[in-house]
Structure formats: structure tokens, C-alpha cells
# Entry
Amino acid sequence: MSDKPEKFIDENGLRLDGRQINEIRQMKIKIGVISRADGSCYLEWGNNKILVAVYGPRELHPRRLQKADSALIRYRYNMAAFSVEDRIRPGPNRRSIEISKVSREAFEPVVMTHLYPGAVIDVFAEVLQADAGTRTAAINAASIALADAGIPMKSLVSSCAVGKVDGQLVLDLNKAEDNYGDADLPVAMTQDGEITLLQMDGNLTQEEFKKALEMCKEGCRQIMEIQKEALRSKFADDQLAIEIPDEMVESIDIAVTLEDVVEEDGETEVEAEGSAEEITKSDAEAGSEDAEIEDAEDEYSEQNLEEADADEEILEVEEESVDLIDEDAGNEDEKVATEGSETREQ
Ligand code: ADP
# Structure
């Protein structure tokens, strides 16, 4: 292991690898790299190299492990023996078991497991080269691989860590910062900023913790953009190759269509099939979730009403401007006619 550097941040505010304190490392993503898997992703983040394969949803064996109302998610984080400088002993250890558990929990709130009772979704995350932040890198790759497998999720999950070196908070720790820094705070969150993983090593004051969380949020926002872009480019290519037959198009059940948004006496109603009410984790949570869903639907209706109002306003403004144009045009016509008559008179 290399020695502890004297300084982690130089007089120009740059880190040992030349990054700003709030800058993430370069990320490269390749989707669909394992043809036998249902979804897969190869991700490079700085010097981290991670391969994730997703299998499922498929029937879970032995059957006694099956859950009657939802699918089971299994997540295995593994470091290849050659992934670090000193070879590590192959097989699970305390660290990999812990990371597997917290990473699985990072996905449980977003994957719509209730759609697949009795099934299992297996996520295998293999660290081929490790350089700090492997759990966060694996979560970012797993999120893409799950999407590649076509598994319905409420949101992608993005993950990054903030640490503290030379008394300053830094985003996305490199190896030296991770090994010798004063703190390490890996976080994973959804598009809405809902935190699905939060761990912490070392010490931070309350103020530092709040700031660190904000930095993580911004890091995750940037990562989610990269993830979405990678998925967009993969599926844009695929769509060119797939032609959906007409008879299939009719049978595709879209949750909310334009026709479902019915306007009655100025009130807008949303009739969604397979509404989010079905998304229940447990009876205890069902009540609060229903309330949230009602709130969300109310918000949606309000939004539609606001949009309708805005549309009306736009129409009125447009009508006014048409009137003005007509008037102007009329004036112009008159002017032309007057000018014409003047010319003729001359
Ligand atoms: P993360 O990789 O999520 O940051 P840790 O903070 O536990 O997780 O590890 C930091 C880094 O230390 C890893 O990315 C890896 O480069 C290195 N590392 C972890 N475990 C070992 C090990 N058993 N042997 C050598 N290096 C390791």
C-alpha cells in the first residue's frame, strides 16, 4: 500500500488526481455485455472496473424460499482475487456480505417486486479492479443492468460517496482519500432524492454531514444523467432494430392514456389502470402509501387543472394577438389602399 500523502488538496484547491473537490471521476458505461444474462452492464469509474449481470425475474428454487406476494431480490457483491494490489482470498467475507446486504436494500424500495410473486431477481456485481468506491460503482452499474433486464422500477438508483481530507469535504473519494481520509459517507438515492443507502465511516460534525449529503445529492444527480444517457443510447439503437406488429400494439396496456384524463365540469380526473395502489410492501405500510398515492393523484389533477388554466390563458393571449395582428393588418391594408389611391391620384 502506498504511503499517506502529505497533502490531499494543493494550493489551487485541486486533489491528487487533479479533480476539484466537488468533481466526480470519469465514468464509462457499456450495456448488454453478457448475452446470457437478462440485463448487464460494464462500468468504469476512475480506475474501478465493475461488471454486473442480472438474471430474472425467474422462478425461485427451492420453493420454500418463495414469497407469496412479491419477488425476492438477491444481490451478490464480489471482489475478484486480482482486483486489488495484494491478491485477496476468493469467496465471501464479512465486508462483501455487508456490502451485498446494504446494496440489496438500496434496490428494494424501487424494484416493483409485487409484480412477480414467487420469483427471484438475481444481481451479480463483480469487481474486476478496485480503486475506492466499489460499492457505489456497483450500485450504479446494477441500476442500469436492472433497467436493461426490463425490470420495472420506480426510479433508477444512483450512488456516490463524500469524504473528508485536509479538513475539507470531497466528492467521490479516490483510493488515497478513502484509505487515509477522516470520513467516508457512501449514499445511494432515487431520482426524487429518496435515500436508499447511507453508511458512514469516521467523524463529521452535523454541519459537515448536512453539507456532505448535499454534495452526494449533486453527485448522484450527475450520475443519474449519465446512467439515463447510456440507457437512452442503448435503447435508441435497439428500437431501430425492433418492429412491433400492429396486433401487438393494440394489446399493449398503457397505464395512463390521454383518454383516461377526463375533464368533467371543469374538474380533471385521472383513471389509471393498475394504479399505484397495488404497490404495497406490507399491510403496515399500506395505509401511508395509499395516502401518498392519493396526494400524488391530487397533485397530478391539480397540475392538469393548472395546465388547463395556463392553456386557456395562452389561447386568450393568442386570440388577443390575432386580433391585434388583424387590426394591424387592417391598418396596413388601409394604408396600402390609401397609398395606392394617392399614387393613382398623382
Ligand atoms: P468501497 O470500495 O465501497 O469504497 P471500502 O471503503 O471498504 O469500500 O474499500 C475501499 C477500497 O479499499 C476498495 O475500493 C479497494 O480498493 C480497497 N480494498 C478493500 N478491501 C480490500 C482488501 N481486502 N484488500 C485490498 N484492498 C482492499
Remarks:
- Residues 84, 86, 88, 95, 130-135, 175, 178, 184 surround adenosine-5'-diphosphate (CB under 6 Å).
- Confidence is low (pLDDT under 50) at residues 250-287, 321-346.
